[in-house]
Write a structure and sequence with these properties.
13 helices, D-Maltodextrin-Binding Protein, domain 2, five-stranded mixed sheet, Alpha-Beta Plaits, 349 residues, alpha/beta, ten-stranded mixed sheet
Length: 349
Amino acid sequence: MESERIQKKLNHIDYEILKIINERLELVLRSKTLEVSPQENNILARLKTFCESHKLLSEIFTGEILRTIMSESHRLQQERMRLIGFQGEHGAFGEVAARNYDQDLIPVPCPQFSDVFEGVERGEFELGIVPVQNSLGGAVNQVNELLLETELRVVGAIKLRINHCLLAHPDTDYRGIASVFSHPQALSQCQDFLKKHNLEPRPYYDTAGAARMLAKENPHMAAAIASRLCAQLYNLEIIKENIEDHEANITRFLILAKEEDREGMNKCSIIFSTPHKAGALFAVLKIFADDEVNLTRIESFPNRKDPGQYVFFLDFQIPDIDGDAGVLLEKVKSTTVMFKYLGCYREDM
């Protein structure tokens, strides 16, 4: 039994080593540099002192490990991989959506939505992906506020059906699970399942973060609600899939970039505000009605910079996929007091 316990601990350490190496490779790719950095040279120069403090690590062995990692870092940089930033830990639904959008992209986690926007603006990421609305939870207000301020363009969109899984540590007996960690929204979306099985919901900052914590800390009699991808990333077992209360749980994500890509466009997104008078919004909507343009989203949000005023987020389909929405947009712009063009792009309907 002691040898089995040690083996399990070794397996866990191996996973942690690989995750840390992956994190290092992501940071190197974000730096966009090809030369060996002074930091790497300093690390190699400090090897002797480090190894003297850790008796089991020889200077030759440690040097080989670090040089191999650095070599792989530079190889990946030379491949000019395209990065896409998403909010949350690895395994978040933003990463699932990014992988579905383009499997060749390298998803990179960001702590906050603002970090995704800033990463694209600074050129660390070629693209960013952010959720704008959920069929059950409504609009993601923080993202919409950031869209109001950014100069980035929307270059694509994707809808993802949210499938929640109950995940457990491999050492956990699922019959003894008593509490479940996850983001409050995920817990709310699975509340019927939790009540049915008498499981205590335990709010956590992120669904994928809860899965990561579960894998690392293995709290007693606990599980997590997260994506199927989290089970693969954190070596967790899937106890049950599709535990959400409603099948129609869909989140729409926007893809952001510095430059617009209008190839195959079939949808446009804009933000505007109208004069504070009767019929002002109707006048804008009439422009679309007269041109027989289908609106797919219209939502209003209070303007934090101008209390008492509202801004409207509007998406519409381009009737002719090869057509130009410019004339229509000019009509709208002339009717509004504030107009912001987010982009024309392709979204699979």
